[in-house]
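Researcher: Good morning. I'm working through a list of sequences from a screen, and I'd like to move beyond sequence-only analysis. For each chain I'm collecting a predicted structure so we can compare shapes side by side. This is the next one on the list. No need for commentary yet; just the structure.
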Amino acid sequence: MPIVSLENVSKRYPSPQRAGEEVTAVDDVTLHIEKGEVYGIIGYSGAGKSTLVRLINALEPATQGRIIVDDIEVTALSERQLREVRSGIGMIFQQFNLFSAKTVRANIAYPLKLAGWAKTDIDARVTELLSFVGLSDKARSYPEQLSGGQKQRVGIARALATRPAILLADEATSALDPETTHEVLALLKRVNEEQGVTIVVITHEMDVIQTIATKVAVMDRGRVIEQGDVFEVFSAPRHPASQRFVGTVVKGIPSPAERAVLRERHSGRLVTFSFRDGGPSQAQLFVDLAEAGLEFELVFGGINDIRGRAFGHLTLALRGETQRIDDVLARIGRQVEVTDIDREEER
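Model: Good morning. Structure tokens for this chain:
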């Protein structure tokens, strides 16, 4: 059974500009998140991602549809009952949301005090979490004395304090530099793998999704326009919004403007070869071209890795006799997707 299910969920707000009209932030979304997954929800600003988070943790009521969290239909609960559901959901934020006047230890202890834990149990749990996130030496420090990465680690520890089954990370790395982002994502992986916490990652950064997520949903204008295994969605994106995200990390087939620049810099016939995990290797491609007596130059593209599975596109400028190029492309095309850019433009 999924630990989180959204079935035909929509959220509408009164329009701030036009009286009597509504703005749709989430539009007929259906998602199923399995227990133990790291599920990424990606989309540009305004896509509806943060609203979706507030629906999952019941901070916002859905306008329509059903939301089921850990076998409980939250759309049918009173506010008092919702507070109990929220206690099983941890949350970390882009701006950390720490109490500036409280020490690191006090920040982590805060949700445990609210939950009515005994002092000895609080002390033991906080000590355990400080060790887990690598901040035992910062217990008496205040947030202003910490780096951004350290603040986020405190935020993660606080979110885990009551042993939630689900952790929601809303743009949790957007305020961090690349190195610190890597450290925080590594910690979230440990949270998932060692503690079995289901993590929902909300972000506009594809790097974050490909590093940590197992499944992904792409949102655009309030709708989920593509979802599934991260490798499948990003190695062969069907929707233009998904294709734009992939293009931020891996260059695909060059655009007309990019082709014009390539032709100014490189002679030869432009051909793009697309690779997916399990197919022939790049090395074999180069061997085949060399054995055919062709000159070739890598001019555009790249290969990406998602959890040990590779995909990508390499555009080469091929030089040699036209018929020889045609023959070798026909042979390679039986195993690798080939886009003969120059030939397509001639048609």
